[in-house]
Amino acid sequence: MEKQAFEQTGLIPRSIIRTFDRFKKQIFPGGEFLVLQEFRISRYQVLVSVKCLLSLIFIPLLFNFFVKFFILLPLTNCFWNTYQNKIFLNSYQQERAFKEIKFFEEKIYFESLLEDELKIFKNENLSSNSITENKKCLNDSNLIELKNSCALLKEEKESKFQKKFISLANQYNNESIESLTNFFIDFLTLGTLALLFVLMKAQIIILKSFLTESIYSLSDTTKSFLLILFTDLLVGFHSPKGWEFFLELILLHFGLPKNQEFIFLFVATFPVLLDTVFKYWIFRYLNKISPSTVATYHNMIE
């Protein structure tokens, strides 16, 4: 026979029964021992929950850090720079590099125009203030200086472009290595986290019980506020912008091309699915566990 998830409501309210049980424990002999035992159990539950939570957070992070920077990153760097001659991991990186080069070219062209206009302005002032008989000589010298400056400017442009190309090549080469490393290390980190869930199954049960008691011990107003906060963050009016930004970070993290159609499809469907799950959870479970919280929640959103 299956065990019911919720207690059935009897003739006497459960709150009165619990109050009577606590009163009976305090009056009859052995009450102090029971209180002390409950305190020890509660203390043990808190310590185990804190240790379990810290282990689930810091062990994967430390594993990610050390394995990534001391093992995977050097191996990926060696493989990428030794056994193949590519710089870009995909076409999306090439498009970004071309846009940066085009912007840099327009910037250099604009700066050169400003420099030419400034030199012409200086030459005109110099010619207007010169003596009439030395005007031709000055103009010839200015022409020679202008030719020399043009040659130097051309060499300077080529040098700037060469430095920019080398900088972009190093940047996108390192970005490709970083993306490949992130893919493998994230996979290994998820495996480590799954292994921790298997090895710490008993501690996780205690942690789950502790978190459940902590949440249910909050007031109805606080629980309703947290419920509204999380639902608005995940499925609220402004949540599509957050989901779009989150997806772009994920794609950039793995070096994948930014597909706007995929992002729009995800933003249009996933929050709707989450909203349905939230409403089902409120109707199916929270309404039975804490009806007053549901009533407060509906009053706050109206």
Automatic annotation (TrEMBL):
It comes from the Eukaryota. The keyword Cell division does not apply. Keywords: Antiport, Chloroplast, Hydrogen ion transport, Ion transport, Membrane, Plastid, Plastid inner membrane, Potassium, Potassium transport, Transmembrane, Transmembrane helix, Transport. The keyword Transmembrane applies. It is found in: Membrane; Plastid, Chloroplast inner membrane. It holds the Pfam family CemA. One of its GO terms (biological process) is potassium ion transport. InterPro entries: CemA. It catalyses: K(+)(in) + H(+)(out) = K(+)(out) + H(+)(in). Its main location: membrane. GO terms for molecular function: antiporter activity; proton transmembrane transporter activity. HAMAP family: CemA_PxcA (MF_01308). Belongs to the CemA family. This is Potassium/proton antiporter CemA. The lineage of its organism: Eukaryota, Viridiplantae, Chlorophyta, core chlorophytes, Ulvophyceae.
